[in-house]
Design a protein that fits this description.
The protein is α+β, with helices and mostly antiparallel strands and about 190 residues long. It has 2 domains: about 40 residues; about 140 residues, lipopolysaccharide transport protein A fold (Sandwich), CATH 2.60.450.10. Keywords: Cell inner membrane, Cell membrane, Membrane, Transmembrane, Transmembrane helix. InterPro entries: LipoPS_assembly_LptC-rel, LPS_export_LptC, LptC.
Length: about 190
């Protein structure tokens, strides 16, 4: 008789606990599904867009093109596809950047590029133009900087340098390679 007094409430407690866990799991899945739907909702899509920024004081020109821009209102960010950026300023080499994707966030001028990122500093006809290849790049336009913490390969003339992490200061032309740097110089001695 004592066992039944202890056993019945224990069984009901276990059943109640299992039912609570089952319902919590169901509602958590539903909340995750709803959150994902809200996060992935698209506000607008623009195709074949082009923009230009001109600073009349310094006669600097910045231009961009993208095949497609998708705006997400919940996070107020935009995803651009097949992006091209260029910057021209007096007494500085032309700077061009292309990438598969670019992400822009509200309240920030910073640009985050990913996928087959190519940076070219100099004209195509320049013998000493610099080409850089990476999978991720952070552009900070106000400081005239581009940075990556990913693997990067730098080509200049017949020289090649590889690194993990890089900063290019377009004002000074200085390139800082961060870590695991290796270089190979195949230029002819003069």
């Amino acid at each position: 008789m004592n066992r039944s007094y202890i056993l019945r409430p224990t069984i009901w407690l276990v059943v109640l606990l299992l039912l609570t866990m089952l319902l919590e799991g169901f509602f958590q899945k539903q909340i995750r599904r709803d959150t994902a739907a809200i996060k992935n909702s698209v506000d607008y899509i623009m195709e074949h867009l082009e923009g230009i920024q001109i600073n009349h004081d310094t006669t600097a020109h910045r231009r961009f093109t993208a095949n497609r821009m998708t705006h997400y209102p919940q996070e107020d960010n935009a995803l651009l596809e097949q992006v091209k950026f260029s910057s021209t300023e007096p007494d500085k080499p032309l700077l061009r950047i292309t990438a598969d994707q670019s992400e822009l966030f509200a309240g920030s001028d910073d640009i985050f590029l990913s996928g087959n990122v190519l940076i070219i500093r100099g004209e195509d006809t320049d013998e000493d133009k610099i080409r850089m290849v990476t999978e991720f790049l952070h552009i900070i336009p106000d400081e005239d900087l581009v940075k990556t913490d990913h693997a990067v390969t730098v080509f200049r003339m017949n020289s090649l340098a590889k690194s993990v992490g890089m900063t290019l200061n377009n004002r000074t032309g200085e390139i800082q390679l961060q870590s695991r740097v290796s270089a190979n110089d195949q230029r002819n001695e003069r």
